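User: Quick sanity check before I run a bigger batch. Here is a single chain. Can you write out its predicted 3D structure?
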Amino acid sequence: MNDTLTTQEAAELMKISPGELLKLAVDGEIPGICFGDEAKGIRRKGRPSTWVFLREDLLAYLKERARKEQARRLARGGSAIETPRTQSGRRRGSVDLNRLP
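Assistant: Done. Predicted structure follows.
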């Protein structure tokens, strides 16, 4: 198993798009190493910089984020695991009794 990951590999590990990953990296939210013009503070359209990520750092980020989200849910009086909700606010898989015939 390789310890260093490309942008694409890191995005797949984190289950997000490469664009979302790069935004997190550029904003300093996740650790990564940038090679190229952007590392020197220069941003040029059409000339992407090369980013490298360490698997260990990304897994540590995911673990810490999961702990924080769990603590936030528990502090709100919810459960450690939340059921995803639809846009209308109902829990996925739940039945709206008002819509039954």
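Helices lie at 7-14, 18-26, 55-75.

User: Great, the batch can go ahead then.
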